[in-house]
Amino acid sequence: LKLLPAALDGQIFTADRDGRVIAIDATSGKVVWEERDKKRRISGGPGVGESMVFVGTSEAQVVARDAATGKKRWVADVSSEVLAAPNAGEGVVAVRTGDGKLYALDAETGKEKWVFDRTIPTLNLRGTAPAVIHNGMVIAGFDNGRLSALDLETGKELWETRLAEPTGRSELERLVDIDAEPVIRDDTAYLDSFQGRVAAVSLGDGSLEWTRDISSYTEVTVDDENVYITDERGYVWAISRADGSSVWQYKKLKNRQLTGPMRYKGYVVFGDFEGYLHWLDAATGTLVARQRIDDERIIAPPIDIGGAVVAYSSSGKMAAFSAE
Predict the structure, then answer these.
(1) How far apart are CA 94 and CA 314, in angstroms?
(2) Could you report the per-residue pLDDT of 224-238, keeping only the tens digit for each?
(3) Is 204 a residue whose pLDDT tops 80?
(4) Of the candidates 121, 149, 119, 124, which has an alpha carbon nearest to the alpha carbon of residue 137?
(5) Fewer Cβ within 10 Å of end Cβ, the chain: N or C?
(6) By the 8 A CB rule, do 312 and 272 touch?
(7) pTM above 0.85?
């Protein structure tokens, strides 16, 4: 399970498998509220938006709580286990389910507005890509290597583009999967796929602005100049936003099962399977610092909480670091 922290309005939200959702003050690290639902096993989230925090469960439900108080607002039934964080915006909660469906729920009531169904391959990675809501659209990557944009009100598909083409003789060789959340910048979506490509996709019509043959299953991060990627081998890349050309590559962390990177105050920051947080210079790709926050693996990418970087290990330990 990839239970990720999420930040909203000066708080950090976390969830665990046993039904617990916790709000933490981003400045002090103190618990603001904690709620537990013993009947539900959390499998995806938390996601935030519309002044609420959302989690998905293995029992095929989405639970919404008030972000300020933790009070339960509503519970909605979906068709399958929820492994990705529900995302909310523009009055809608977008939810991906393990059987290939994408739900749009009313943010106030949890009632279903529409559902989009995409057939999934026989073999795929454990996990699904969170959907992103942007300017009246829902943008989501699917297990067949395709990226789709849907109308937020109706669920009608506006366009679809393929990031990865299945090739090879075996099911394993033909496995292509998008498990990372698209990053939107200046009406372009940046994302990667397993055994596929890193791509810049125009939100206007779904056309590919450029692609690079880099296989990754983690999130990318973007700044004004570059896209930063950690690939499946443990290499870290900076490639140009303009044309996808290489800016630098860091290879000394091979096979360390790196998280997706984040861009913060001149650095590229990411975690690894031994609990280390690594800092590279964003301009040159040189290693600047690293700290070990835990003996357990870091699965979640670090998050920017405004003035600090928060890292979160798979054992549940959280730590905040300043760039200074």
Answers:
(1) 25
(2) 999 999 998 999 999
(3) yes
(4) 149
(5) C
(6) no
(7) yes
Count the neighbouring beta carbons within 10 Å of the beta carbon of residue 112.
Answer: 14
Rg (CA), the chain: 19
The residues that bridge with 49 in the sheet, in sequence order, are 52
Residue 174 pLDDT class (50, 70, 90 cuts): very low
Q: What is the pLDDT of residues 27-41, one digit of tens each?
A: 999 999 999 998 899
Q: Which residues pair with 52 in a beta bridge?
A: 49, 66
pLDDT greater than 90 at residue 198? no
From the DSSP assignment, how many helices (H) and strands (E) are in the chain? 0, 31
Q: Residue 161 carries which side chain, given as an amino acid letter?
A: T
Residue 317 has pLDDT above 60, yes or no: yes
Cα–Cα distance for residue pair 215/131, rounded to 1 Å? 20
Neighbours of 101 (CB within 10 A): 17
Return left, alpha or beta for 316; rule: phi > 0 is left, psi -120 to 50 is alpha, else beta: left
Task: Indicate the average pLDDT of the chain.
Answer: 90
Q: Does the pLDDT at position 53 exceed 70?
A: yes
CA torsion through residues 175, 179, 183, 184, sign: positive
- Cα 46 from Cα 143, distance rounded (Å): 21
Q: Taking a C-beta distance cutoff of 8 angstroms, is the pair 238, 226 a contact?
A: yes
Secondary-structure percent of the chain, ordered helix, strand, coil, rounded to 5: 0, 50, 50
Give dist(CA 163, CA 201) in Å, integer: 9
